[in-house]
């Protein structure tokens, strides 16, 4: 799983403005006791690993 920032055409929660809110969303995960290793995987490492594994 990985998060992206293409929010065009979807209804967002009031506090999420778009891609520019990713840092706040990251901090929200941490404040809700998600492990930092897991949060890093969700926010970028899973996608990075995918692209590296498939030479994309």
Q: Radius of gyration from the CA trace?
A: 13 Å
Distinct helical segment count:
2
The rounded distance between the terminal residues' Cα atoms is 17 Å
| Overall mean confidence score, pLDDT | 90
Spell out the helices and strands N to C: HH
Tally of DSSP β-strands: 0
Summarize this structure as a short list of keywords or feature phrases:
56 residues; single chain
Characterise this structure:
- This protein is mainly α and 56 residues long.
- It has a domain at 20-53.
- The chain has 2 helices and no strands.
- It has helices at residues 22-31, 36-53.
Mind sketching the topology for me?
Blueprint: H1 22-31, H2 36-53
Describe, in short, the structure shown.
The protein is mainly α and 56 residues long. The chain has a domain at 20-53. The protein is built from 2 helices and no strands.
């Amino acid at each position: 799983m990985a998060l992206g920032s293409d929010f065009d055409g979807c209804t967002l929660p009031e506090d999420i403005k778009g891609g520019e809110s990713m840092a706040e969303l990251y901090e929200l995960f941490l404040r809700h006791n998600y492990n930092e290793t897991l949060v890093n995987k969700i926010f970028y490492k899973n996608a990075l690993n995918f692209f590296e594994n498939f030479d994309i």
